[in-house]
Write a structure and sequence with these properties.
- By secondary structure, this protein is of the alpha+beta class.
- It has one domain.
- It contains five helices and five strands; from the N terminus they run αβαβααβαββ.
- Strands 1-4-5-2-3 form a five-stranded mixed β-sheet.
- Helix 1 crosses helix 3.
- The termini are far apart.
Length: 111
């Protein structure tokens, strides 16, 4: 595992940011079940910015990814999460960073 620092700041990669932003959208959990079965669906905490996480994964920013995983803010979707989302066929925000599908529950409205 390389510990060499990133050569560029992923957040300044505007071309990739725009691409990820365009390809991020709302999907129902039922559309993601086959990806979950393949073990490639990754939960992103509502505290994190989904686009930033996708950018950092695309840039292989191991330090940020490890920090989020250690803090419990990024993980493969658990069977409990999957069952909960399946029961409600929950809408989620999703972004594909091959081979992963990043998902984030919609933020709860404060009204």
């Amino acid at each position: 595992m390389s510990t060499e620092p990133l050569k560029t700041d992923p957040l300044k990669d505007s071309e990739l940011h725009d691409k990820i932003n365009r390809e991020t959208g709302r999907v129902q959990w039922s559309e993601l079940e086959r990806h979950f079965a393949q073990g490639v669906v990754v939960w992103v905490s509502e505290e994190l910015d989904l686009i930033e996480v996708a950018l950092r994964i695309a840039h292989d920013d191991k330090a940020s990814i490890a920090r989020w995983m250690d803090a419990g803010k990024l993980a493969k979707v658990s069977s409990v999460q999957a069952a909960t989302w399946q029961a409600a066929d929950s809408p989620l925000w999703a972004s594909v960073v091959s081979p992963f599908v990043l998902v984030q529950p919609e933020k709860k409205s404060l009204h």
